[in-house]
Design goal:
Length: about 180
């Protein structure tokens, strides 16, 4: 493969990894910020609720971790970590789009999970015994971040599989 094509593919794969982790972390930061604003108001009057509220504030932080996992998997499966990268430009484009899609899903779910956590914090402030129910609402939003992570993992494995005939982009090229 042409060295320039490999460099283009590598750059696109790195950009996809950067989008996944960057957008996931940005969403987590924003979601935690929203939940923290609700938490500080409650804790100023009811400091005994710190443990329960801390869990609700921390929930949107998982999307940043999912973005990091996605980036590491892009690096691993494309050979960028061990230095054996042979990422074709078309695979690089696919990994870029994949990273953006996963990152967008993580960003959006983290922000909405922060909103759901803020509402749950309000519920716990009024009725501390409802913590078990209150945590379910932000946890439901988490489901879609997990789906994005799993779809990303499967897609990365599928796009970078080196066994003959198993890489979907090689299959598409062969059919044309």
């Amino acid at each position: 493969m042409d060295p320039l094509a490999v460099e283009i593919g590598r750059g696109l794969a790195i950009a996809g990894a950067g989008l996944a982790v960057g957008m996931g972390c940005a969403g987590s930061g924003k979601g935690i910020g929203v939940a923290s604003q609700a938490a500080t108001g409650v804790l100023s009057e009811k400091p005994n609720l710190f443990g329960q509220i801390l869990v609700l504030v921390a929930l949107p932080g998982t999307q940043g971790i999912y973005g990091f996992i996605t980036a590491i998997l892009i690096f691993m499966y494309s050979g960028l970590i061990n230095g054996t990268y042979m990422v074709a430009p078309n695979t690089g484009v696919a990994l870029l789009v994949l990273g953006f899609g996963v990152g967008l899903a993580l960003y959006t779910s983290a922000v909405w999970q922060g909103e759901a956590s803020a509402a749950s914090i309000s519920l716990v402030a009024r009725r501390a015994e409802e913590f078990g129910r209150a945590i379910l609402f932000p946890a439901l939003v988490e489901t879609y971040a997990v789906i994005a992570l799993l779809a990303g993992i499967l897609s990365i494995i599928w796009l970078t599989n080196q066994a003959p005939g198993t890489n979907i982009l090689q299959y598409i090229q062969a059919v044309q």
